[in-house]
């Protein structure tokens, strides 16, 4: 899992970013990074290969001229205004699945807020063992280690809080009207652009840790999506008509979610319910909800304080904690 | 974790048990166990050391004369009438914690029903990070890997089902009136003799696996317990006045629990509710229930279909999914 070249490059990048637009001598870089010269040259080569514009001049050293939108820890931490989330970052070029690694990190004691992020996932996970299409450098594929002091029964509410933070962020940054599709998707129009996969380890009345996977289609073009999901899927770029900064989106999401997360853990879902309902794609619509081997048909009328979807059926009213919804 | 001497001994034990009371030649043992002679002699030595009465006679071989109450896989499987539970057994002389190993096995794909059992735990786990006193060869310290197709919110019910199976087994085998202390203890009189520690890995609406730890004080004497827990703790031996067969208790519990488990996963808790209520130590008594940073005081009036304890307080009726109960 460790990645020495990337780790070295992170150190050099940090120094170059701190001196953005100015030349930094080889000596200075070697001192601040504690890296031997060979690794230093190798790291600069790698950063250039990855897309960083690094000028060099004999006798003056190296100068970073222009930032990119790559998901390096140094880039994410730069100006990140959170208290907990993203204080520890594990960033990768390629991972099987950010949830998989975050789960392992959580098991071995990683702090609350630890962020695992990768430019690409080769086996991105969706809900119920499904896969999540995670191509390189176009989306945000990330997982957060959370340690909320709540029982497992409250977890559906947390998943919805993440959706709320995300649609609010997308609205604020890009002016796009995004919706929460209970329990774990985010839509623009009727198309999915993001999903949340919550995994947890718990005792019966106490979550030990949760791993919250968030996948956001940021910069895919229509033809980037495999044909079988193209109709139901979209990206922020497609909807907005231009590329967006993934780093900006990520940082704003982390700040927005942190606020809601702390409120939710402290006081529950009630304070967010009206906003969640306002941004729900299902309310007052005919739905079929599958859960376990059961399914019900009716009208989605509410999302309650547990985060359950309340469905009015012919025979009464039923609150469902989580399931698969299709519109009628 | 692997234990080659114990594994070899298991093979020899199996052959000797199959021929109980009869002599088995060295040649036959070597053939049926596929072990070299050195390992064979070593295994017999170990089995004797562990307490097996194995007679030997020149030219005739070895003969197992008398069974013991040791928790070897071969002993547990002998006559075990289950369909799922204990089909795969990992038995140990010493483990840190059976739950810890079972959780690892579950994560790496071990089948439903896999049993981990140890004569002794050096770091036995109780609920909420507490420890569980697990001395050698006096109790049953075990964990089962379960893969129930239920949401995490139903897990408290499963914990109670395990308690029900255990108190029924103790009643049937030893005629002792045992009670379920919601949510996860079993009592004789007001003293605890067993506890259940349920751990789970899940998505928000689907348990991936559960590890059900069961600790049963079978053959401890009063003075075996540390003084700080002596007053609140008991064993079956103390209550019955004689040593019991741990193997018999284990096998009957596995059969009893399997039946309830399959019923619960298929049809829920409703069918067991009356029996659970009848065997509950809390109903119609004044209780204080702590859950999270909240606590309520009232009378325990019901256990509902979710396995929640229903408490009638001054201001109304509240159902608690899991918590810490003390009697008023």
Shape of chain A: elongated
Count of distinct structural domains of chain A: 3
Largest interface: A-B, 27 and 28 residues
Oligomerization = homodimer
Q: What is the helical fraction of chain A, as a range of percent? A: 25-40%
Q: How does the major sheet of chain A shape up?
A: 7 strands, mixed
Mean pLDDT of chain A: 91
Give the number of DSSP strands of chain A: 14
Structural class of the helices, strands and pairings of chain A?
Answer: alpha+beta
**What percent of residues of chain A are in strands?**
25-35%
Question: Would you state the CATH class of the largest domain in chain A?
Answer: Alpha Beta
| CA-based gyration radius of chain A | 21 Å
Write the layout of secondary structure elements.
Two copies of one chain form a homodimer.
Chain A: H1 4-18, H2 26-33, H3 37-49, E1 53-57, E2 61-66, H4 73-77, E3 89-92, H5 98-107, E4 115-118, E5 139-146, H6 155-174, E6 178-181, E7 185-188, E8 191-203, E9 206-217, H7 227-230, H8 236-240, H9 246-267, H10 273-278, E10 286-291, E11 294-303, E12 309-312, E13 317-320, E14 324-327
Parallel strand pairs in A: 3-4
Antiparallel strand pairs in A: 1-2, 4-5, 5-9, 6-7, 7-8, 8-9, 10-11, 10-14, 11-12, 12-13
Q: How would you describe this protein?
A:
- Two copies of one chain form a homodimer.
- Chain A folds into three domains: 4-66, Winged helix-like DNA-binding domain superfamily/Winged helix DNA-binding domain (Arc Repressor Mutant, subunit A, Orthogonal Bundle); 73-278, BirA Bifunctional Protein, domain 2, CATH 3.30.930.10; 286-327, SH3 type barrels (Roll), CATH 2.30.30.100.
- Chain A is 33% helix and 27% strand.
- Chain A contains ten helices and 14 strands.
- In chain A, the strands form three sheets. The first copy, chain A, has a seven-stranded mixed sheet, sandwiched between helices. In chain A, strands 13-12-11-10-14 form a five-stranded antiparallel sheet.
- Chain A is elongated and about 80 Å long.
- Chain A binds chain B through residues 127-128, 149-153, 155-156, 159, 183-184, 197-206, 291-292, 321-323, and chain B through 127-128, 149-153, 155-156, 159, 183-184, 197-206, 291-293, 321-323.
- Strand 8 of chain A pairs antiparallel with strand 8 (191-203) of chain B, so a sheet runs across the interface.
